[in-house]
Amino acid sequence: MEKIDLEFSKSLKKYGAVDISPCFNCGNCTAICSLSTEDNSFPRKMLRYSILGLQDRISSSVDPWLCYYCGECSETCPKEANPGELMMALRRFLVAQYDWTGLARKFYTSKIWEMGAILFLALIILAIFVVFHGPLTTELTAEGGVKLNTFAPWHQIHIGDWIMAGFLAFFLLSNVFNMYLKILRNDKKIKIPFRLYFTELISLVRNFITQERIKDCEKGKVYWLIHLLLMSGYVILFTMIVGFLGWFQTDNIYEWWHPQRLLGYYATFGLLVGCVYFFIGRIKKDKELNKHSHYTDWTFLVLLFFTTLTGILLHFFRIYGMPMATYYMYVIHLMVLFPMLMIEVPFSKWSHLAYRPVAIYFSNVLNKAKELQKS
Q1: Chunked in runs of 10, what are the mean pLDDT values of the chain (375 residues)?
Q2: Residue 43's closest CA among 85, 13, 8?
Q3: Among 158, 256, 302, 319, whose Cα sits 20 to 30 Å from the Cα of 249?
Q4: Which residues, at least 6 apart from 4, have a Cβ–Cβ distance to it below 8 Å?
Q5: Distance (Å, rounded) from C-alpha 280 to C-alpha 260?
Q6: Is 250 helix (H, G, I), strand (E, B) or coil?
Q7: Predicted TM-score (pTM) of this structure
Q8: C-alpha distance from residue 101 to each of 32, 174, 233, 344 (Å)
């Protein structure tokens, strides 16, 4: 028998939810939502589960991940229960449920924990460079650039990148496994043929790369394009740093049309445009999805923006032969980048980049399994 927890909706406020108690199950949110179907009263079902405190049902559902928060449900709610913001809060709640370490819950519910973790990781980077940095030479390369690899040899930094990537992969994949147990292994009545995990795998790859389901909402192609620019810019930079640092962090100054610089410029453009777009939206609050920003949303944007800005300054200082500015900016850049990756990727906002396409994949697997059982 399921346990009803009428206090659950109050605890969701820590994750950014507004008061949903006025909801009287009118169904306006389901009627207006383009993602709602005959089999799924989206997002009303999640509202009812939250009001009743049916945490197990929420934890085993993919619904919160299918929502891209166009805001129409909140705009049409006659009681201002704000179902759109609830779905956003449920995504934060689910990240905390998947995370076996408990850190996601700490970061989402305590500003002190999140700010303290960011500062702690930044100080670790600072301490490493204070102790282990190479010579601060003012001698320039033949092209007039800074000898950055004298100060921070790329092969040593690359070892650190791989260690970091290993930690990120371990935490994120283990949390995705917990997600799998809660969603696909929860309902014993549904038997999932093993082949479905392979036949539906293309949906995981396609949705991760294209983010195409955003276009199913009423936000329009502009929002999808901004989101795609931001995501692809991050993925390109992360891949270049972790996989090809020797090519990316070089003392050579290539022509502007060289692939190394073009990829870097595209990634920087995507991150900068995305940050500015979402900053403006959250400051203006002229759209429903921007009216109730959680503090972790701001933390993520600030870290991402300063990672991009310090990267731009580092590039400028390096190619125009400013040694000391380059060395200091390199340390500052990593002091922002490292905490952003270690906190945001497995435990906070960037984890949505993995959980959302995985949830769509799990949803497709479940739906196909149900169809096979009916036939």
Answers
A1: 78 86 86 79 88 91 89 86 90 95 95 96 97 93 91 94 94 95 82 90 88 71 85 91 90 90 94 93 84 90 95 95 96 96 92 91 90 82
A2: 85
A3: 302
A4: 52, 53, 54
A5: 30
A6: coil
A7: 0.91
A8: 38, 10, 29, 14
